[in-house]
């Protein structure tokens, strides 16, 4: 069986067998499939789709492509994973909140994908932060500090690691079977029993409609439940950026501000996710979970926990005392409201503009510029006056094309219809 035959079968719309899927995942992990073959396979899946059965098999095959981690000790371990959005740094708020409350978080994260930001890239804003923990280091950090956030190593889910990097630069991200198998293979290879999935929908998400996001959410809950994990999926709005900043350093600054008590949609959604995880992990009732999560921020315990996580993984903690330790590029381009009315913000164009300015990748493996930022001065739905400053772009190299793209992300209309932050929450009883 060759990679060529497997790609050809998928290109012709055939359902792949267990043997074909396992063989392809193995070839990807062992480097015997080329990047071109991986790209062709992913494109064939994007265009032809996969049955739920094929997606289950691909997830298992990818999870088995490396070593599966075992828990470092008895106890409940939690994880949360987002399908990708713009200005979505919930992981960096949620993990320290939960860890400070005794819920241990074992978090395998990814890099920026397409127009979306990635947790690993943001963590590297703390100079020296090591995202490449060995399986032993990962387990030991979770046990000692209460949390670890790392990227897959060569030995953990190597098939996803390669496929993810190829998908990022070949427009093959927005496929339900590829996202479901990518996310869930990492979850199954790790040891968290309690998993909260944040499935985004809207302009800045890979799923454009709530319906498509619900389909993806159900599939991932089904894969996780079938493997004996406790999984819930929150389908959440990603039409406008979640937080107020886009770009690594700027987003990490905002995380620190939220952990110091700033209230915005990033804070709200992170707290809602913490509540769901506390309820799943500790069987806590809603009111108590909410109060505890809020107290973890108000007391400074969560901020202190993030400092510890960063320091334990070798990162520079200067930003906890002075946000300027996370510099922003010195070039400034101001975006003003073209007329008066209600502001609409489109997340995808902003994510792409940030990437074009160097804040994200155009090519696999490229270095990114952590200082590039888009700072929102006004939020979607705000009433704005003509000429008012609505955003500031911080850049190192002037690129008119990126400024035009960013400007196209703002529209002013007579009215604005807000969507709820959380569209629905799905669990195993909804399958
Ligand atoms: N996050 C992942 O881990 N994989 C995807 O495919 C999309 C988001």
UniProtKB/TrEMBL annotation:
It catalyses: 2'-deoxyuridine + phosphate = 2-deoxy-alpha-D-ribose 1-phosphate + uracil; thymidine + phosphate = 2-deoxy-alpha-D-ribose 1-phosphate + thymine; uridine + phosphate = alpha-D-ribose 1-phosphate + uracil. One of its GO terms (molecular function) is 1,4-alpha-oligoglucan phosphorylase activity. InterPro entries: Glycosyl_Trfase_fam3 (IPR000312), Glycosyl_Trfase_fam3_N_dom (IPR017459), Glycosyl_Trfase_fam3_N_dom_sf (IPR036320), Nuc_phospho_transferase (IPR035902), PYNP-like_C_sf (IPR036566), PYNP_C (IPR013102), Pyrmidine_PPas_bac/euk (IPR018090), Pyrmidine_PPase_CS (IPR017872). One of its GO terms (biological process) is pyrimidine nucleobase metabolic process. Keywords: Glycosyltransferase, Transferase. Residues 342-413 form the Pyrimidine nucleoside phosphorylase C-terminal domain. It comes from the Bacteria. Its EC number is 2.4.2.2. One of its GO terms (cellular component) is cytosol. Catalyzes phosphorolysis of the pyrimidine nucleosides uridine, thymidine and 2'-deoxyuridine with the formation of the corresponding pyrimidine base and ribose-1-phosphate. Homodimer. Belongs to the thymidine/pyrimidine-nucleoside phosphorylase family. This is Pyrimidine-nucleoside phosphorylase.
